[in-house]
């Protein structure tokens, strides 16, 4: 479901409560109606006035205010999406136990819409078997409990349990609103993704490269990490605000660097996705100092190019040689006859699947949305409906998970 929606933002008693203000603003600016339902403890961190002003709606914590409107059931019944951010260990336990002892837990117990929890707690609490069992219970019931980030916690501590940034939570929650739940279908899988564009130096200030924001690759990494995979992204030039939480990022610049890093990790991967826009050619020589107009005009006008290795093809060759048994997925950006060229490219590259985009008229590059077809070596063609790149990523992972089985 897309905006405008009835969004309930539950806020519980953790220091990350202040970040919930940004989340409220994010949904309000998208045109959604937002109702903030904090716990009593949340109001120790952020005052009700702040949430009322940001949401434009009243804020209550208990079930005995505005009783005439029966809001302890009404808010949950009318919600299209519920997000709890931050979600403490305590609220996770109370939801798992089916408690309804305040307005937030009552709302969640009544609701049938998608529910997204963004945990925030100290590492000891997050890894505690009690919390992990509660999280597993909630996931089994179809709720999305996001994997927290590994980073700075309250005080001097650092580790897993840091709440994701509000922008990341908002994007993931919007994805959940469209697909129902993020899912956990990649638990235990090792996923290797290339993203962004590679750049080939002409001299210390000039380069040739391929256009790519890296957004689709990062969205694939983000969704894979949330589905439980161990994710490594080999990233070229990237133009994205957030790095995907829970993924290891290896930075590269040129195609040959990208090839080296991908090859080094291929043996340990279960699934490889080549989403990078790889520069097919590089200058035969790289000038050690800046080439100057005048003295070097002739040379600049006639830069000689040599072909770069085809990384995807090389990975397929490695599999043929028994060096990896990963499922290998490529991308193809085409301006003309996308489906026809895509099928032909899949056969030529020998990959298992190819996500074919039409990039005619500047579509896709740097945009938040994408669409296309996922063609499989088994002859399947899955149409990927136009949607935000994370929703597209979820559809791509669904198809890869099916292919794997
Ligand atoms: N790719 C690669 N190495 C290259 C070129 C492309 O690994 N040197 C990968 C891309 O990451 C992508 C797929 O191959 O997954 C298809 O990329 P694309 O640029 O569409 O294909 P090309 O082989 O370059 O074909 P063409 O430019 O002729 O369309």
From TrEMBL:
Residues 6-171 form the Flavoprotein domain. Residues 1-190 are annotated as: Phosphopantothenoylcysteine decarboxylase. Pathway: Cofactor biosynthesis; coenzyme A biosynthesis; CoA from (R)-pantothenate: step 3/5; Cofactor biosynthesis; coenzyme A biosynthesis; CoA from (R)-pantothenate: step 2/5. Its cofactor is FMN; Mg(2+). One of its GO terms (biological process) is pantothenate catabolic process. CTP binds at residues 280, 290, 309-312, 331, 345, 349. Residues 191-405 are annotated as: Phosphopantothenate--cysteine ligase. Residues 186-401 form the DNA/pantothenate metabolism flavoprotein C-terminal domain. Keywords: Decarboxylase, Flavoprotein, FMN, Ligase, Lyase, Magnesium, Metal-binding, Multifunctional enzyme. Its EC number is 4.1.1.36, 6.3.2.5. In the N-terminal section; belongs to the HFCD (homo-oligomeric flavin containing Cys decarboxylase) superfamily. Catalyzes two sequential steps in the biosynthesis of coenzyme A. In the first step cysteine is conjugated to 4'-phosphopantothenate to form 4-phosphopantothenoylcysteine. In the second step the latter compound is decarboxylated to form 4'-phosphopantotheine. This is Coenzyme A biosynthesis bifunctional protein CoaBC. It comes from Corynebacterium liangguodongii. The gene is coaBC.
């Amino acid at each position: 479901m897309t905006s405008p929606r009835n969004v309930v933002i539950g806020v519980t008693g953790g220091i990350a409560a202040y970040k919930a203000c940004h989340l409220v603003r994010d949904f309000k600016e998208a045109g959604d109606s937002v109702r903030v339902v904090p716990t009593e403890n949340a109001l120790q961190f952020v005052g009700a006035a702040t949430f009322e002003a940001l949401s434009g709606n009243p804020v209550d914590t208990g079930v005995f205010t505005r009783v005439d409107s029966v809001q302890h059931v009404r808010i949950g019944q009318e919600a299209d999406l519920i997000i709890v951010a931050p979600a403490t260990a305590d609220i996770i336990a109370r939801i798992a136990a089916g408690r309804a002892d305040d307005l937030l837990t009552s709302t969640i117990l009544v609701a049938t819409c998608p529910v997204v929890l963004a945990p925030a707690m100290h590492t000891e609490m997050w890894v505690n078997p009690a919390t992990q069992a509660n999280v597993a219970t909630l996931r089994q019931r179809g709720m999305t409990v996001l994997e927290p980030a590994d980073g700075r916690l309250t005080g001097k501590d650092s580790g897993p349990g840091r709440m994701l940034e509000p922008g990341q939570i908002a994007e993931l929650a919007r994805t959940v609103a469209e697909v129902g739940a993020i899912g956990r279908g990649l638990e235990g899988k090792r996923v290797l993704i290339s993203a962004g564009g590679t750049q080939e130096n002409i001299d210390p200030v000039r380069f040739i490269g391929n256009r790519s924001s890296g957004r689709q690759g990062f969205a694939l990494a983000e969704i894979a990490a949330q589905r439980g995979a161990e994710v490594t992204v080999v990233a070229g030039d990237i133009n994205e605000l957030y790095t995907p939480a829970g993924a290891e990022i290896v930075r590269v610049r040129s195609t040959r660097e990208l090839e080296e890093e991908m090859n080094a990790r291929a043996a340990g991967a279960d699934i490889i996705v080549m989403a990078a826009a790889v520069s097919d050619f590089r200058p035969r020589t790289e000038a050690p100092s800046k080439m100057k107009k005048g003295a070097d005009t002739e040379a600049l006008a006639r830069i000689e190019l040599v072909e770069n290795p085809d990384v995807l093809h090389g990975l397929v060759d490695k599999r043929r040689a028994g060096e990896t048994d990963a499922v290998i997925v490529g991308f193809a950006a085409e301006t003309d006859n996308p489906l026809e060229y895509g099928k032909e490219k899949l056969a030529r590259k020998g990959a298992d699947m190819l996500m074919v985009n039409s990039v005619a008229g500047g579509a896709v590059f740097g945009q938040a949305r994408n669409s296309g077809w996922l063609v499989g070596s088994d002859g399947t063609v899955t149409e990927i409906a136009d949607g935000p790149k994370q929703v597209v990523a979820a559809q791509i992972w669904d198809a890869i998970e099916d292919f794997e089985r």
